[in-house]
Amino acid sequence: MTTIADLRARMRIDLQDPDGDRWSDAALERHLRRAIAELSRAAPREERVTLATSPGSRELDLSGIAGLIGVDRAEYPSGSEPPAFRQITVYGAVLRLEDGPLPDGSPARLWCRLVHEADASGCTLPAALEDVAVLGATAFAAAEAASGTLEQLTLNPGTAAGYASLARERETAFRQLLRELGGRGRLRAGRVRVEAAG
């Protein structure tokens, strides 16, 4: 299974920094996390999350779902065949079941979009998206180097220009891939109403 260390190693190859002379692990991880966060908005991790309901309340607290981007569907009661999808409203960290039986404390199942994760134990990105994350992360790292803000690095003008060119090229490719991924339009069934907070 791919780990964040594997992704960092791929970044170092692309940035021609195999020995870690220019970028610290922490700097590369910061750029990776930014790229993964942006990639997650275009191609999120999709999971079904079971959440307890409160007897007599149609509202569910979403604040405990780590990395939540959005909820596409809600089943209540969960486990019915066919699934008992409900109309929902999401406002901030609260989801409201707008129809169906009043919850009695039995669980609801939410069809969620989540931010991808990468750490020492693994990575939730599909293999096909790992290269996209590395592409974006190396663009951000090169842009940092070009701006002269990279710690403990002395750049001559030619090197700075080279990093700026690399950053532009890679970020353009990364943004194009994000547009393509976001435009594929996964099937969104169900009835959802979302209110803007504030």
TrEMBL record:
Entry-linked InterPro entries: SU10_adaptor
Record's protein name: Uncharacterized protein
Organism: Tepidiforma bonchosmolovskayae
